[in-house]
Design a protein that fits this description.
By secondary structure, the protein is of the alpha/beta class. The protein is built from 13 helices and 8 strands. The longest helix has 21 residues. It is globular.
């Protein structure tokens, strides 16, 4: 029951100030956030690549309030792409973007987000990589999918994310699988009402399996975003039944979580991509990581109590 409480706290300025000031916060944040700048994250991309892992990079930050901030988000990704190009790392690292960071919630936000994300997608294609549009809360998804469809006209490799706990997702998965999209499937990490989302965790897992099956049997490229050993095993079996080769799907996990399992999957010949976030506006991303797993919250609380 702690998950919904933590997710609510992720939108609280008061909790943001408290968590940011807590003595143990920096230690725990470093577990999930690769650094604050491009210079911090580039060595990590290189190190992960040398271990046979691929990367998707997320410049954290969501709750912007001005057009100028949306342009700054765009420019941060363009800076990142420029550095990856200089270092020849483009083919090992893609980008993940949240359209809210690109102005989706502002006035005329759909058009603004599309205008901001297009040059990022174009620049990524120019260095041999691509962009995946992250899913956010359910109110943003029609806009996200419409932008995804528009971008794929010129950049068909553009990916998107679907969330197993939403009732709509099986239909979304069928549509995306039929048109050959790159699709990351995750359980879902936003506080959603019972009117739109499954609330029972075992039922979410069942939905995850059904949706994974749809993706594996379709024409697209499935990306299995999970740390759950059962769902990873199911993904492997569904890929085998669908006759997919190892380069026709991939697994994705978060930076700092289950690193040994990431290495094991890569060593077995699976494509394994590490979702690596960096930046100064880490609070919302960090709180969702705490909400996803009670052990993360316990780790954070112990760190606070033992510091200072």
């Amino acid at each position: 029951m702690l998950g919904p409480v933590i997710l609510a706290a992720s939108r609280s300025d008061k909790m943001r100030r408290f968590v940011s000031a807590a003595p143990g916060t920096k230690q725990v944040v470093a577990r999930f956030i690769a650094g604050e700048t491009v210079d911090d994250v580039v060595p990590i991309v290189r190190e992960l690549s040398e271990r046979g892992l691929e990367v998707t990079l997320d410049v954290v930050g969501e709750d912007i309030t001005t057009v100028e901030q949306s342009h700054a988000a765009r420019d941060a990704y363009l800076e990142l792409i420029g550095r990856l190009k200089e270092l020849g790392l483009g083919e090992r690292a893609e980008m993940s973007v949240k359209l809210s960071m690109f102005g989706q919630s502002l006035d005329d936000g759909h058009a603004l987000a599309l205008a901001n994300v297009r040059p990022v997608v174009e620049a990524a294609a120019g260095i041999g990589t691509t962009v995946t549009l992250d899913a956010e809360d359910h109110t943003t998804l029609d806009s996200m999918f419409a932008i995804h469809e528009e971008l794929r006209k010129d950049f068909p490799q553009t990916g998107c994310v679907i969330q197993a706990y939403l009732f709509r997702t099986e239909d979304d998965a069928r549509r995306l699988a039929a048109n050959g999209s790159r699709v990351r499937i995750v359980k879902g990490a936003y506080k959603e009402p019972a009117s739109v989302a499954i609330q029972d965790k075992p039922e979410i897992d069942k939905a995850y399996v059904r949706i994974t099956k749809i993706l594996m049997e379709g024409k697209g490229y499935p990306m299995i975003g999970s740390h759950d050993p059962r769902l990873i095993s199911v993904g492997q079996e569904l890929a085998r039944r669908a006759g997919r080769k190892p380069d026709e799907y991939e697994f994705q996990m978060l930076y700092g979580i289950r690193s040994e399992e990431q290495n094991r999957l890569a060593a077995e010949g699976h494509r394994m991509r590490v979702y690596t976030a960096y930046g100064t506006d880490w609070y919302g991303y960090f709180m969702r990581r705490l909400a996803e797993k009670p052990a993360n919250l316990l780790f954070f609380v112990r760190s606070i109590l033992t510091k200072g």
